[in-house]
Amino acid sequence: HCYAVSRSELLADYQGGSLRRYLADKGLPLTRTYSLIGARLPNREEAARRLMPRHAPWRTVLTRSRDRTGQPVELAQSISRADRFQYQVAP
């Protein structure tokens, strides 16, 4: 996760748990405004670190979230095993 430098004071007391809930409790609810979902194969080091075969694809998600005024606050990239992933799109 990368956060806007202007919001760093909010993160100083973060101790763990849901970061989105923590920020909302501090008065900064975030709205996901962009998600790019993809797949790729891990390189040798990534596969070894996660104890998975190199031929097993990963699911990747790049997400941008904004505050109430529309200012970008968070850019997050997540990677998970594609064979253990389920995605639901709801209106």
Number of helices: 3
Q: How much helical structure, as a percent, in the residues?
A: 10-25%
Query: How many β-strand runs?
Result: 4
Strand content: 25-35%
Reported CATH architecture: 3-Layer(aba) Sandwich
CATH secondary-structure class: Alpha Beta
Whole-number mean pLDDT: 90
Number of domains: 1
**Strand order across the largest sheet:** 1-4-3-2
Give unreliable regions as ranges. Answer: none
Please provide the ordered H/E string of secondary-structure elements.
EHHEHEE
CATH superfamily: Chorismate lyase-like
Note the main sheet: 4 strands, antiparallel
What's the Cα radius of gyration? 16 Å
Helical/strand content category: alpha+beta
Return the CATH topology.
Chorismate lyase
Organism: Ralstonia insidiosa
InterPro entries: Chorismate_lyase_/UTRA_dom_sf (IPR028978), UTRA (IPR011663)
Pfam families: UTRA
Protein name: UTRA domain-containing protein
Describe this structure as you would to a colleague.
- The chain is an alpha+beta fold.
- The chain has a single domain, classed as Chorismate lyase-like (Chorismate lyase, 3-Layer(aba) Sandwich), CATH 3.40.1410.10.
- It is built from three helices and four strands; from the N terminus they run βααβαββ.
- β3 and β4 form a beta hairpin.
- The radius of gyration is 16 Å and the shape is elongated.
- The two termini are 26 Å apart.
- 4% of the residues are buried.
- It comes from Ralstonia insidiosa.
Quick summary:
The protein is α+β, with helices and mostly antiparallel strands and 91 residues long. It contains 3 helices and 4 strands, in the order βααβαββ.
